[in-house]
Amino acid sequence: MLLGVAIIFGLVALLVSGAAQAASTKCYGVQVYPADDLTQAASAHAAGTTYCINDGNYSVASNIVAQDGDTFSGVYSDSTRPWVSTSTAGHIFHTLGADKATIRGLAISGAVHNDACEPNCGRAIGGGGEDLLVENVRAYDNENQGIGGTGNGLVVRDSTFDHNGNADSANDGGLVSAAGIKSVNSMYIYDSRFTDNYWAGVWCDIECGAFEVHDSLFSGNGKVGIDDEISSGPALIEGNIIQNNGALSTANRHTGLLIVDSRNVDVYGNTFGGNVEYGIEIAETNRNPGIGTVSIYGNSMRGDVLKGCTISGVTCKRN
Fold this sequence. Notes:
By secondary structure, the chain is mainly beta. Helices cover about 5% and strands about 40% of the residues. The two termini are about 15 Å apart. It is elongated and about 60 Å long. The protein has a domain at about 200-205 and about 210-319.
């Protein structure tokens, strides 16, 4: 019964998150319109300002620099969010040093990277900042990541990340970075979609700490849908649809959910199917903290293979 409920909630997340969420027609703050320079507007006001980004297209030449407590909120009445794009900026919304910022109701695309700044560029949103909240955003066609390099406490709700990353940003000087979202700090993801990102959908790496993914869709990501790597957790992955990932031939793994050298992970109530090599892959590569206290239970595999249940510290049941 619990598994059936989880699948239903996952399907609801898929349907609801597929388009822009309920249009936002009210915003109280600094009103910004397509004829305005959004980067200049953000630099002209003190920290803690709310920017009401009215419907239309905004092209920015350089990073929009967020400050502590800033809110960037799209204002629109149809089915499409205001669109903020670039062909030159390494970050569209640069959150370095900006704690408790909020970005909502926007489509964000086109962030670029190059050999001088990689892997810390090519991001729609990121570069730092604690307790960043991202709601009802579509981040797509950014050369590296939809969100990347944020501080602790990232929360993402009701958002879509698609077609982020490319072959160059996937291998920056030996570092791999392309993803819908990648962080080495804590993050919490709810009711969102990750489709057709070049390398990974969501990636917790190198002791990201608390890592939760709930009721979200992962499909068509080149290497892996969700990657929990070299982290002590706790991690909780539940109620997600994780299907048809891992088709990128040059990737080193081809998996729906990858848990590698990580501890304190609970995985339950997820629906798999059509992932190229494994639905769930648990692996050890002799890096700290190593595999331990990993529980995989109550998932619907839909014909996918579950690998790694015989590793010490792993429990698999009722899958």
